[in-house]
Amino acid sequence: MFKAQTEKRVAVFFANGLEECEALVLTDLLFRAGVPCDKVSITDNLAVTSSHEVTVVCDRTIADDDFDFDAYDMLVLPGGMPGTKNLRACEPLCDAVRAFATSGRTVAAICAAPSILAELGLLEGKSATSNPNFQHVLSEHGARVQQGAVVTDGDLMTSKGLGTAVELGLELVRHFLGDDAVEDVKRKIVYQS
User: Fold this and answer.
1) What is the mean pLDDT of residues 77-95?
2) CB under 8 Å to 90, separation ≥6 — which residues?
3) Which of 38, 94, 121, 169 is the most buried (most CB within 10 A)?
């Protein structure tokens, strides 16, 4: 049963071809911590099919008449291919990501998705990471590529991939609820560091 521990809200964006485990690990950890989180389809269909042909039913779509990016305190971009390309091709989402990043609101991206932040010009002069196959995109757009599992620079959080999704999820929890909440979630998931 979900019990909100904060009034802050997170939107995790689902595109066809995404890496479903990255997206679901992040939403799971936020849920366990009590951080309200919506699974948002970037299409007009609630059902999104991952790169591994797993269908996930989202809570909302950006096509909903009442959908408002500004109702959220954080935007999260999972990776996967061609999911990342589909996220990048979604102009309303990219406009919102740019607006969040330039106004000091938090954006997180994992795996290939940090390349979107780079291509939008949001990582120039910033420390970031991504899947190793996309780190050249970050550096070509002026990012200082780091090798940590999760790299936070101001209000931008980036992570390497599925193998680092738990670490990113814990950082998202820490962002909203602090260290005690992270330790509580670690205990709930039997986290082995």
Assistant:
1) 98
2) 13, 15, 42, 62
3) 169
Question: What's the pTM?
Answer: 0.97
CA distance 86 to 8: 27
What are the residue boundaries of the structural domains of the chain, listed by start? 10-180
Quote the CA–CA distance of 7 and 72 in Å, as a whole number.
10
CATH number of 10-180: 3.40.50.880
